[in-house]
Amino acid sequence: MTSNSIPQDSNREQRVSALSGWLPLFVNLALLVVAVWLVVAGIATAKHGGDGVWQILGGVGLFLVSCLGATGFFTLQPNQATVLILFGSYQGTVRDSGFFWTNPFNSRLRVSLRARNLNGEKLKVNDKRGNPIEIAAVVVWRVRDTAQARFDVDNYDSYVRVQSESALRHVASSYAYDDGEPNEVTLRSGGEVVAAALTVELQERLARAGVEVQEARLTHLAYAPEIAQTMLRRQQAEAVIAARQKIVHGAVSMVEMALNELSAKKVVVLDEERKAAMVSNLLVVLCGESETKPVINTGTLYN
User: Of 47, 77, 112, which residue constitutes the final position of a domain?
Assistant: First the structure.
């Protein structure tokens, strides 16, 4: 990914460490115990005619503080991160796994850093030659920068899906389906090249969202239904022509070898007319699709 792929005004992730949650948990439990004790003591004092209001109010206050402190606890599993926001201001991202405590007034946005699969739907596009085709791809991606993913795009999951479809359409229209020019990469034959081109374009498009593309592969490639039968007949015709070319080339080589062997071993001496007749007969036998039937010649070639 090039450095100019990311806009200059984009956010940058700032990694921070959160306080381990075990000490705040002990303090919070201690406050809760003290709060209960003050309330009970205040009630007992009031029953004996004393002034236990302040004890009760103190206990209620500590109880509220304990409840507020309890909202600051959070846990993180491996390959998870939490974005901390205090009154709209980005405070940093915690990437360590474990049990933590933070300012209860911090908003916490959970972001998964695990690899994800986007199995795209079949798209109907036109290839480089304008032929309608159906194409689909699977994209393996993960969040690289949590600040960009949360603040630079509205919804990074939706952004990845839409941009993946757009990139696939553009790549599909840049290559022919098949039967390209000599040494031309096509969608059908150049799988690795096409996958690499798709990965590069996806990375350029998704850099704004802080997403790293790990792999992109075509999962479906076919002509559109309206031209599939026509293209199938064309492919069959091309296959027949290619097979015929090989058959004719092999037959000519075999006829040449037969004539050379007959001449070298002096089995029979053939003039040009007899050679032409033998070549014709051999080509019919070697190139014909149906089984040949021998004909016994009781005369000569000339009568």
Answer: 112
